[in-house]
């Protein structure tokens, strides 16, 4: 095979994963944005907008569904691609054995990251190790160049084995750091190397119907697993063959096991990913001092090359295994356990030292690698330890940053509610009435200038009497207020992930009341409030609906900033139709988000909860009164829900000092109407038509950089459609308000 023409690019691992996917020309990518893998979908979307490929990118509402989209597409016989990280991978994990157990090829890129909690978005290997038993082939790239090369080989391997393949690499180190890399000039070189799609069977052939994913009893399931085992054993020969074929085409060598100065080494270091390149420099330093050190790493984690590892290590007296994750209680990370087993299976007795390093993205320097290697020359070196930890203070007592905002009997009541004729009447509840209310969310947080989150949270809390416990789902609101070891909250605070915030709060509320019932907590009252945003009511919608259906006594509060802002503004289901984002670019073939924003208040109203409301900072008195009502209903009738439109100047493309005007325009255009659904009855809180303030939706869209393109003649058809939908929703609301039975 003749070496193909290539060109030099200066790109990151994420960019090169996307570039390889473009050249492969996958049929489909199902995805959900999560740091640090998100850029892969972003780059593909940008290239698609410019007409560089025709891959269908399908934005799911969560990683579990993204995996399902990919599985469904692969059952149809096409080439399928995905990318994820950390807890997103764990959320999708249930789907991985389905893909491999039904022998359907696809490629999944994993930009490896810490698994929370506590929450950290930095890189380590605690996510990828969960995939070892899923039946997927796993390749690990140590550089952006290898990300590109492995991605091209991965789909050929997947289709040759009828097994899915993971391409893993270090989050932020390999995923984001740019390097000079070579790519093929002609996309057809890649496509010819891979060959045509050739499925023996699909479910898209009605003349030959098949059943995929049958129910299996004991005798059949063990045979299914044995066949998967045989496929993985076949991979031991197929992967080197593909690597060799690729080397002839590219001139670059990919090896199952890679090593550096190991032939005569007395002490060997095993290290995975980008740290391998750093460790090579440490080996050179020790060699210059006369110490026979070496380092090795893997490109292939599954199938695990046990024999090759044993052969490489047989002449060393010590092997140090550096794990960027810990298998807690096992005396080492997963690579330590597997390398020990590989040596023991061949009767080797080398000393194996395990070290945990680099967790949460902790940098790994040459001197760290030197320290690891030198431990192999110390007879008294502990068998297991962590590298880079620091001693704590045994007598440390954390001091509060603020005086707590707690409820006392002598505190004045600034807002009161009573029920009259089936509706709740609020007394007080204006900005002036609640000026004396101390802020539960303190100033000094890290939110961007003009961010609506602290404004809206504090407006909500102005209407809430008594003690509160706040639960924030993952998002900007949580990240900018709780940077360890400080906090911006003067009240109890809990964080949990997008997909189960409402369930977590329901459990906490139930525990509070149960412990009171048993006399384990004193009498009193706490209002439990979940704060969600940044797309949290996409991935978390199922949990929220279940909480509403049970009627758990909590308030669900959504700050709708119209995108996945904490990951850099990708489209969410609440992003306006036509808006540009990192996954809905403008280009020759694309004009922004292609579908309407989700109407979450109406979805939750359909569950029959006693109180649903929308609020806006442009009408703070209305906002505060609705918060008071939500508290009353949560305590007396069940779940309450409030949604506000929350400004994000950074990603909306407007100015911080204009946000109240922008929010007001959204209300006056009826894009974000203000209303209540109280015990099933709809009431308009504000009617811009009656107040002669109704404006076209374009008057709102043109105020933001993300949507102002829609106000040009080129996109007039899109804005016409948006205006029709806004009019339709507003008309339905008015009819519901005029006819109580609706």
By DSSP (H or I, 4+ residues per run), the number of helices equals 23
Strand content: 15-25%
Please compute the radius of gyration using only Cα atoms.
29 Å
The largest sheet has its strands arranged as 19-18-20-21-25-24-26-27
Low-confidence stretches: none
In short:
The protein is an alpha/beta fold and 742 residues long. The protein contains 23 helices and 27 strands.
Keywords:
742 residues, alpha/beta, 7-stranded mixed β-sheet, 23 helices, 36% helix
Q: Which SSEs are present, and which pair or pack?
A:
Elements (H helix, E strand, L loop, with lengths): L5 E6 L1 H12 L3 E4 L6 H12 L6 E4 L3 H13 L4 E5 L1 H7 L3 H6 L5 E6 L24 E4 L3 H18 L3 E6 L8 E6 L2 H8 L23 H33 L6 E4 L6 E4 L4 H14 L4 E6 L1 E3 L3 H8 L4 E6 L10 H12 L5 E6 L9 H10 L8 E3 L28 E6 L2 E6 L23 H11 L4 E7 L2 H4 L13 E4 L4 H17 L8 E8 L2 H4 L1 H10 L4 E6 L25 E2 L2 E2 L8 H6 L5 E5 L4 H17 L3 E6 L3 H4 L6 H10 L6 E4 L2 E4 L12 H5 L14 H23 L4
Parallel strand pairs: 2-3, 2-4, 4-5, 5-7, 6-7, 10-11, 10-13, 13-14, 14-15, 18-19, 18-20, 20-21, 21-25, 24-25
Antiparallel strand pairs: 1-8, 6-12, 9-11, 16-17, 22-23, 24-26, 26-27
Helix pairs in contact: 1-2, 1-6, 1-7, 3-4, 6-8, 9-12, 10-11, 13-19, 15-17
């Amino acid at each position: 095979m003749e070496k193909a023409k290539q060109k030099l690019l200066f790109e990151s691992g994420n960019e090169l994963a996307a570039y390889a996917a473009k050249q492969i020309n996958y049929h489909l990518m199902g995805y959900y944005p999560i740091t640090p893998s998100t850029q892969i979908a972003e780059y593909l979307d940008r290239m698609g907008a410019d007409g560089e490929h025709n891959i269908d990118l399908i934005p799911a509402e969560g990683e579990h569904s993204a995996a399902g989209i990919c599985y469904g597409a692969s059952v149809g016989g096409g080439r399928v691609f995905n990318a994820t990280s950390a807890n997103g991978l764990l959320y999708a994990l249930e789907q991985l054995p389905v893909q491999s157990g039904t022998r359907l090829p696809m490629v999944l890129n994993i930009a490896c990251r810490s698994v929370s909690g506590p929450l950290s978005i930095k890189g380590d290997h605690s996510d990828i190790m969960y995939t070892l038993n899923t039946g997927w082939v796993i390749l690990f790239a140590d550089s952006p160049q290898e990300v590109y090369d492995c991605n091209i080989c991965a789909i050929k391997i997947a289709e040759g084995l009828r097994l899915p393949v993971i391409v893993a690499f270090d989050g932020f180190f390999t995923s984001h750091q740019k390097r000079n890399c070579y790519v093929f000039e002609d996309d057809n070189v890649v496509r010819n190397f891979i060959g045509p799609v050739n499925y023996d069977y699909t479910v898209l052939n009605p003349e030959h119907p098949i059943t995929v994913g049958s129910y299996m009893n004991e005798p059949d399931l063990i045979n299914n697993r044995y066949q998967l085992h045989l496929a993985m054993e076949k991979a031991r020969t197929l992967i080197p063959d593909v690597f060799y074929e690729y080397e002839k085409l590219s001139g670059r060598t990919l090896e199952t096991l890679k090593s550096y100065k190991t032939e005569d080494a007395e002490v060997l270091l095993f290290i995975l990913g980008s740290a391998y390149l750093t460790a090579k420099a440490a080996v050179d330093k020790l060699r210059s001092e006369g110490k026979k050190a070496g380092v090795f790493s893997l490109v292939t984690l599954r199938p695990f090359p046990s024999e090759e590892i044993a052969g490489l290590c047989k002449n060393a007296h010590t092997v140090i295994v550096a794990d960027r994750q810990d298998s807690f209680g096992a005396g080492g990370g997963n690579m330590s356990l597997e390398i020990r087993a590989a040596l023991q299976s061949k009767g080797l007795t080398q000393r194996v030292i395990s070290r945990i390093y680099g967790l949460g993205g902790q940098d790994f320097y040459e001197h760290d690698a030197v320290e690891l290697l030198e431990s192999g020359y110390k007879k008294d070196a502990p068998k297991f330890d962590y590298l880079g930890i620091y001693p704590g203070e045994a007598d440390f007592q954390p001091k509060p940053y603020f005086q707590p905002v707690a409820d006392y009997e002598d505190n004045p009541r600034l807002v009161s509610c009573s029920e009259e004729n089936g509706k709740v009447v609020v007394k007080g509840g204006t900005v002036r009435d609640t000026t004396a209310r101390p802020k539960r969310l303190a100033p000094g947080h890290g939110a961007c200038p003009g961010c609506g989150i602290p404004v809206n949270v504090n407006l909500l809390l102005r209407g809430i009497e008594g003690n509160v416990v706040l639960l924030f789902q993952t998002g900007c609101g949580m990240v900018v207020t709780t940077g360890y070891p400080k906090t911006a909250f003067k009240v109890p605070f809990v964080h949990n992930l997008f997909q189960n915030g409402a369930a977590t709060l329901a459990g906490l509320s139930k525990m509070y009341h149960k412990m009171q019932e048993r006399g384990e907590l004193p009498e009193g009252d706490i209002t439990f409030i979940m704060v969600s945003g940044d797309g949290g009511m996409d991935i978390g919608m199922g949990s929220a609906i279940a909480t509403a259906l049970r009627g758990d006594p909590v308030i669900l509060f959504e700050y709708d900033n119209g995108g996945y802002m904490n990951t850099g503004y990708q489209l969410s289901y609440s992003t306006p139709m036509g808006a540009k984002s990192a996954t809905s670019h403008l280009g020759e073939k694309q004009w922004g988000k292609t579908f309407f924003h989700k109407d979450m208040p109406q979805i939750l109203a359909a569950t029959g909860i006693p109180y649903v409301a929308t609020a806006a900072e442009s009408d703070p008195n209305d906002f505060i009164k609705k918060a008071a009502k939500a508290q009353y209903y949560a305590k007396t009738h069940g779940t309450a829900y409030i949604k506000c439109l929350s400004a994000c100047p950074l990603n909306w493309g407007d100015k911080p000092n204009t946000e109240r005007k922008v929010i007001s325009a959204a209300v006056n255009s009826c894009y974000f109407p203000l209303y209540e659904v109280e015990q099933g009855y709809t009431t308009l809180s504000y009617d811009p038509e009656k107040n002669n303030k109704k404006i076209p939706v374009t008057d709102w869209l043109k105020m933001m950089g993300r949507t102002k393109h829609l106000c040009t003649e080129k996109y007039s058809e899109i804005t016409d459609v948006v205006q029709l939908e806004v009019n339709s929703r507003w008309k339905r609301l008015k009819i519901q308000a005029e006819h109580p039975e609706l």
